[in-house]
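Field reference: sequence -> structure
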Amino acid sequence: MPENRLEIDGVSKRFGDLVALDQVSFDVRGELFGFVGSNGAGKTTTMRIVLGVLAADSGQVRFGGAPVDHRTRTRIGYMPEERGLYPKMKVLDQLVYLAKLHGMSTDQAHTSAEHWINRLGLKQRRTEEVEKLSLGNQQRVQLAAALVHDPSVLVLDEPFSGLDPLAVDVMSEVLREKAAAGVPVVFSSHQLDLVERLCDRVGIIRGGRMVATGSVGQLTADAAVRLRITAPQAQPGWAATLPGARVLTEDGATTELELEAGADDQAVLSAALATGPVTEFSRRVPSLTELFRNVVTEETEEKAR
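Structure field:
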């Protein structure tokens, strides 16, 4: 079993009558793993159980094949969604203090703190109090705090929140480097375009249950394909009775369709050509944002039943 593998295995958690997590399972190796779900889906609860802030009712968290204990947790770098910094401490002093809490010597702590201050573009802010920084720079310090002790695992809750595009690029590069070095990186985010662009794999949690896990390509492979067809001479409603196709929009000569799994797009093309010339026929697989929206819609419909 790989040494750098983080496993969440059948984890469940209740708060009174509320089932927060129901047999949640996934694993992360040296990769970027995007953990996504709507508010209240169970993301933060899962992260807190990994960190030992909460105890699971059942199931287990393992790292390197062994149950996660206090010693293992000192090797985790955590970045909370809400600021977890001391507002009146200066940036450098704070990072050195946190590194020493994780067992680094004073010299090691200073060297590491200076490294991450420079790497994350905080050199001009190193002697400023955290509360005097912009929200974006506070977020950079928060990431530095998660990295300063050279963690073996990274767990980040909304790490890109409040960052400008340049800071997003810097943080993305750092996380990619960590994953390439074999560090499992788990992060939650509502910025699904970033998740789709950055992550090796994605896990979608809904109502405390994992409903999908895989690469974006794998998750969208079985999703309904969409077609965009422009047929200038077609009559309105020409596609309404095509088998396996559902009309999404019809705007003049352009029609957008959604195909059921296994439906023949060539049959749709033949039907379009039967109306006259076809000037556009394009096929598109849904994005992660669209896939996530469908999952949330399904959850809402289930609750309404």
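Note: The chain has ten helices and 14 strands.
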